[in-house]
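User: Need the bound-state model for T5A:
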Amino acid sequence: MLGKFISLEGGEGVGKTTNIAYIQSLLEENGISVMLTREPGGTPLAEALRQLLLDKNQEEITEQAELLMMFAARAQHIKHVIKPALKQGTWVLCDRFTDATYAYQGGGRAMDILAINWLENFVQGELRPDLTLLLDAPVQVGMNRAAQRGKLDRFELEKITFFEKVRATYLAMAEQQPARIKVIDAAQNLEHVQAKIYQLITQFLHD
Ligand code: T5A
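Assistant: Bound-state model below.
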């Protein structure tokens, strides 16, 4: 049996990292073997690309280079980590995946969606998440939480309007693909957020 592929999405500071371990524990309580990973990243080369992508103290990265680096990291991640795990029956829980490219590069940077779509098919073939949990909160809520955590990375220095476009793109995708993308109100306290996650994961396990 192939493992299932679950991704976690949302804007800056909405709580993806905080909640991923909770989802892992819910799945493990049901006897499922789970691997946690993240994008960009997940392999040594992809993590090196992540460093370059998040580092604000370097030459300006063109939009095209940024998009290609995201997919270069993803190609490594899929071949060396995600597909082998799914093949073994391990479930993959990924902090961001290609929806982030549509939201940040497609929405935030207004890059050509057809180019993103072509790269998605080229790099992933048929691979898509089986379930995506979209943590959604007003931009300022997430930015305040991210700021409390300390130093801001290259993306977190973007203007509010950029993140408004990211959020709107995520919500539009959720509306277009309601069977896969489930929206969670992440402005609520952690207890509420995790109660909703519990409900969605339980439902997914019984479908
Ligand atoms: N990117 C990524 C692209 O542009 N294109 C792509 O294709 C991909 C894959 C990656 C960056 O790369 C971009 C997007 C990103 O800018 P990242 O580290 O994955 O960076 O993403 P970030 O959003 O920067 O991750 P963060 O760690 O900032 O946000 P999280 O993980 O969503 O938030 P988390 O869990 O660290 O929580 C932030 C703070 O809020 C508190 C937590 O305790 C923490 O202090 N918190 C709450 N407080 C109150 N109530 C709640 N419900 C809370 N939930 C969390």
